[in-house]
């Protein structure tokens, strides 16, 4: 279900009389398939390439003969920080670390999420609090990316390693390190407070939207909302609220939109809703 499956699917479609006029937008994850369709016309097929960004890039590369009708969209991850990009001309990147952080970066979008919970007046403080606390895990992810430490972040939760000071959420960093170490038996190095702080000091990052993983931010957002209201929301609820709040007019503000529009116009296509 990785690149091979997608390549075969697209090739069969493009070689058929009915499907040859289709335009394919290849993406990484299932959530991407919930975000992007609202921005494209119905003759565009949004297709997830299973297996992560590596499989996505393989699929886009192997389908270069159809590069005028196929584009890939990937989360930037740390590419903007490292200034490292694929040479593929029809592979495009989110403005921020991922599509979630790209949406969250828009202050109006973030504020609109909080209207549902009557917390909009606290939007600026809440966003800064969550960015700051999530950045610690972001730095560990960045350290892992650079040093190839095989640290396991899959499915990590934060409910048992956060405290509340007033209405602010505080990540208990020693417990966070302990949790990550315990769930990463194949790691090549043991994380400790000194190592993490040395890495942060030697890699100062001011743009947390490039550093923070969107799923980490959303998990912390759900925890903070739950702390402040009487009813509970899940991580999926918070993700859904974010997706539903984000509109085509918000998407038009992004560099990703501008890049896709340029690709569309260069290939005489009409795929992006105006």
Give the overall form: globular
In terms of DSSP E residues, the strand content is 5-15%
- Low-confidence region ranges: none
Distance between the termini: 33 Å
- Can you count the beta strands? 6
Structural domain count: 2
| Topology pattern, helix = H, strand = E | HEHEHEHEHHHEEHHHHHHH
Helix/strand/pairing class, anyone? Answer: alpha/beta
State the share of residues found in helices, binned by percent: 40-55%
Q: Number of DSSP helices?
A: 14
Largest sheet: 4 strands, parallel
Mean pLDDT: 95
Evaluate the radius of gyration.
20 Å
Q: Please list the strands of the largest sheet in the order they lie side by side.
A: 2-1-3-4
Task: Tell me what the structure shows.
It contains 14 helices and six strands. The chain is of the alpha/beta class and 274 residues long. It folds into two domains: 106 residues, no CATH class; 146 residues, no CATH class. The protein has a four-stranded parallel beta sheet with strand order 2-1-3-4, with helices on both faces. It has a two-stranded antiparallel ribbon with strand order 5-6. The protein is globular and about 60 Å long. The two termini are 33 Å apart.
Short description:
Helix content is 50%, strand content 9%. The chain contains 14 helices and six strands.
């Amino acid at each position: 279900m990785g690149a091979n499956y997608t390549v075969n699917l697209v090739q069969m479609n493009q070689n058929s009389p009915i499907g040859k006029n289709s335009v394919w937008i290849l993406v990484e994850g299932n959530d991407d398939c919930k975000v992007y369709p609202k921005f494209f016309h119905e003759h565009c097929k949004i297709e997830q390439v299973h297996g992560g960004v590596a499989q996505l890039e393989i699929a886009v590369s192997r389908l270069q003969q159809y590069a005028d009708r196929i584009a890939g969209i990937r989360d930037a991850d740390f590419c903007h920080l490292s200034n490292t990009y694929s040479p593929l001309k029809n592979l495009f990147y989110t403005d921020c670390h991922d599509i979630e952080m790209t949406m969250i970066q828009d202050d109006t979008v973030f504020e609109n999420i909080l209207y549902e919970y009557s917390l909009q007046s606290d939007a600026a403080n809440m966003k800064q609090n969550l960015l700051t606390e999530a950045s610690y895990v972001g730095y560990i992810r960045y350290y892992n990316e650079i040093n190839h430490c095989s640290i396991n972040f899959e499915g990590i939760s934060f409910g048992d390693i956060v405290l509340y000071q007033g209405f602010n959420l505080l990540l208990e960093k020693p417990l966070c390190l302990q949790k990550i170490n315990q769930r990463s038996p194949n790691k090549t190095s043991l994380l400790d407070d000194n190592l993490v702080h040395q890495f942060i000091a030697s890699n100062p990052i001011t743009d947390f939207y490039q550093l923070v993983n969107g799923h980490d931010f959303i998990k912390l957002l759900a925890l903070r909302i739950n702390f402040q209201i009487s009813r509970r929301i899940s991580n999926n609820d918070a993700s859904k609220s974010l997706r539903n709040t984000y509109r085509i007019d918000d998407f038009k503000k992004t560099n990703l939109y501008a890049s896709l529009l340029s690709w569309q116009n260069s290939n005489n296509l009409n795929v992006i809703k105006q």
